[in-house]
Each structure stands twice: as structure tokens, then as C-alpha cells.
Amino acid sequence: MPKDYVISVMSLDRVGIVAGLTEAILELNGGIEAISQTVLKGYFTIIVTARFDEETDPQALAAAVRDRGGPGELEVCVQERRVAAPTPVVPRAQRFILTVSGPDRKGVIHRISSYLASRNINVEDLYAYREGPRFVLLAQVQVPPDQELERLQMDVASLWAAGDMEVTLQHENIFLATNNIDFRSAEFGIRNSE
Predict the structure, then answer these.
(1) CATH (domain of 111)
(2) CA distance 100 to 137
């Protein structure tokens, strides 16, 4: 009977981690269903969902992945995927893109994530970094259909003193149509397409 697992790996970054991980999965007769990977401040992180045609022991899978690195190099976590099919965290939600930028200070991510949680808005993807004295956050969020967009935009902007932080909340389609995202730059950059 097929088994689905979620595998996460963290390590100092180096060439070949993805190749080693995928080799371990393949050798155990598994196939990757979804993958998300990034390098953050020199640390490599990845999360993978994989399906195995035969019964696979999670400890053996974790050991096979660890063996692709040096002694103590790869932190590996494997757990059985418990959900048969993805169910939406926020039913009938629409995707929006939230951007926040301004002076760097402690607590910005906590303040925005707490507000979103209080409005039943789920964060699907989040990327934030500090560039000198400036802070930049980009998040893909699921907004429930009962939320009024104009009210959300005003509330998010009012989390900081007027003019202190630049905040935008746009439907995903509008964001994609009006922005060019450059993933190839040294730092993640957003440029207006106009």
C-alpha cells in the first residue's frame, strides 16, 4: 500500500543537497509530489512530500537522507502525511499578496501575523529580509470571502504610525499583472512593471 511522507531537511548550504535527497527518495522507490526549498542567511531548508509504492519505515528514510551528508551535517525530520487530500485552511478564500517595507525593528512580523490570525487570514508563503536599516516582507495570504478588502487595507496600514511603513494588500492577479519579481538577484527584488 502506498505511503505518503513529509520530509524536511536543514543544513548549512552547499552544492548537492537536493541531489542527495532526491537520490535517497528514488532509491527507496519513492516519487516527489511537491517540494519547496530556499537558502536563508547561509542555511539550506527544504520540505518535500513524497509517495512510496511500498511500506517504508520513516526512520530508515530519515537515515537514508542523512547518509547523503557528512557526519551530523543534515538535520532530517520525516513524518507520515496524515491528510488524504489537501483541504483548504480557509474555505473559499482568495489569494492576496501582502507587502510591508520600512524601517527595521523588532516585532514587525509578529504584529502583522497576529493581526492576520485575528481576521482568520492564513499565511501560505512568507519571505522577509533586512537590507541595512530597511525591512521588507512579502507574503501570500488566503483571505476569507467575508472580509472587506478596503477595511483590511486600512487596518493593516494602521498597524504602524502614519507614513512609517509602506503596506500594500492586493489580489494575487493584480499583483502579478503589475509587478515583476526578480528571483535571480542577490536579494529578492520587486520592481513595478510600469
Answers:
(1) 3.30.70.260
(2) 5
CB 97 within 8 A of CB 143: no
CB-count burial class (<10 Å; 0-12, 13-18, 19+) for 110: exposed
Buried b (16+ CB within 10 A) or exposed e, 61-98: bbebbbebbeeeebebebeeeeeeeeeeebeebeebbb
Instruction: Give the structural domain span for 8.
Output: 3-80
Domain boundary residue among 80, 115, 139? Answer: 80
Residue 85 lies inside a defined structural domain of this protein: no
Q: Going residue by residue through the chain (194 aa), what tens digit of pLDDT does each one get?
A: 788 999 999 999 999 999 999 999 999 999 999 999 999 889 999 999 999 988 899 999 999 999 999 999 999 999 998 865 667 788 888 899 999 999 988 888 999 999 999 999 999 999 998 888 899 999 999 999 888 888 888 888 888 877 788 888 888 887 777 776 554 444 444 444 44
Choosing from 55, 80, 105, the residue where a domain stops is 80
How far is Cα 141 from Cα 169, in angstroms, rounded to an integer?
9
Please state the pTM of the whole predicted model.
Answer: 0.72
Closest to 29 in 3D by CA, of 66, 7, 54: 54
